[in-house]
Amino acid sequence: MLEDITIKDFALIDSLSLDLNSGFTVLSGETGAGKSILIGALSFLLGGKGGSDQIRPGCTEAKVSGTIFINDKCKDAVSWLEEHGITPEDNRVLLRRLVRDNGKSGSWIQDTPVTRTELAEFTSFFVDIHGQHEHQSLMKVSEHIKYLDSYANLTDEVSEFSTIYKSLVEKRATLEKFNSSDAKRAEKIELLSFAISEIEEAKLKSGEDVELEAEESRLSQYEKLYENLELMTSAFSQSNDSILQGMKKIRTVAEHSSEIDKNLEQLSIRITNAFYELTDINDELKSYKDSLIFDPERLEEIQERQALIFKLKKKYCSSVNSSVDEIIQYGQNAKKELEELSSWNENAQELINSIKLLEKEVFSRAVKISEKRKIAASKMSEQIEGNLAQLGMAGSKFAVSITQKENSDLMQKCGPRGMDNVEFLICANKGGELKPLAKIASGGEISRVMLAMKSILAESDSVDTLIFDEIDTGIGGEVSVSVGNHIKKLSQKKQILCITHLASIAVYADTQIRIEKNSDNTTTKTSARIISGQERVEEIARMLSGDSADTASCEHARKLLERYSNCLPA
């Protein structure tokens, strides 16, 4: 779940920090106060598009950060972090995002820089935003099959299928790689054999190129190096005004001075230590200078060796700037491939037989999974239609379209999740035609479809945080009460954040955050804070009648809060 968010200089928000609770949190405020700005900042943090137009006027950058808690169900998220070398702290990760006025932006998970795409991929394990923002899985057709599998309790079975399917794909790739003509295979064997022989003959050592470069630099610039050492040793000790002579005099004076004034004793000790340290440095410089030997034959030998390594890098590395280790690795891979090619005739039939067995198993499992999906799809459609009727979309039709992937004359085509293409279809108007859910224009309808769906997936769905921006669009009366009840019920399993103008939804919330806009002669700022007690009563009263001070409205608000805010949903 999302535990907190901090916003700095984003749109009309100059500085805002909120702790976000579990359960149902409602965001309310006057029209234009900036409720959608807060959702926009959340979308930005989660990997939504960012631009310089989001920066508060007069500022150079906008920053948003937040903390996500990773629960035990988020196995995919944990695997993602491991793959990217990111370590959570106390099951938490810090997200950071910024955009500058020059258009440049940055994203981080913990202290690791990530791309916007990577940030969105990671946060999709935890948060769905529903409204006019892009960070919503319901709009991605590729996610529909996952929703259906979750509803049908097929997630583990599909995961097992994916593992077997991956093995089949790998074996097919191996067969295709080696199942070429005898002439091509013989040519490949000859090329690999030559490469192996050339690399082995070079007798390369790991890190050798770095060591040769250092030695070549020392020998090729021997005269300059010797001259520098001579200058340094001379400056230290080979003249009357050398460094060591000067230090010796200073040391003697310092010792005499410390006998006169004890406050100088520590300085005298430091000067003595410095004198001995410089003496030691001088001795080492002399020793190093005396050990220098110019060996033109060794220099020529090194340069020939470097030329050989350069030639091998051009042939066997991705770049001439690669390390010698890449040549060594190429040789090892070539040996393995040569062994496979050489024993191809012996192993070919075994691989073909293995592929045939896997194809049968993949097809058999895919058929069983498809049959279970079709059964679940009918039940899922019926349940969602029932929920939609309660959420003000009576007469709506919802269907789960399951079509099989294209096949050939030889076999049914499958993918990592089986043989099915899954897409959600809906008709929001009675008597209309079912169309892809992604074609729906109304953010309010999308939000209510998601609410209906999440209500039946609360146990199995791993996404912990749902954010609804426009769920109350075009509804009121009993429908809004039903929407509030649905959200309250769902919030027993999920963290819910919801923008609403309707008191009949807001009274169900466990926490209410009021968004306010304040202006002076020069600036306009949006702020947000949690309200409770009398403040919340007055805010509900304002949502009921537009007047937070009206006695009748306040009394009505108080009764609604007493009735719904702490009650369990029906």
Attribute tags:
alpha/beta, 6-stranded antiparallel β-sheet, single chain, flat, 6-stranded mixed β-sheet
Calculate the mean pLDDT score and round it: 86
Describe the largest sheet: 6 strands, antiparallel
Shape summary: flat
Number of strands: 15
Q: In which order are the strands of the major sheet placed? A: 2-1-4-5-6-7
Number of helices: 18
C-alpha termini separation = 25 Å
Q: Low-confidence spans: pLDDT under 50, at least 5 residues? A: none
Indicate the proportion of strand residues. Answer: 15-25%
Secondary structure: helix percent: 40-55%
Radius of gyration: 36 Å
Give me the oligomer status: single chain
What would you call the structural class?
Answer: alpha/beta
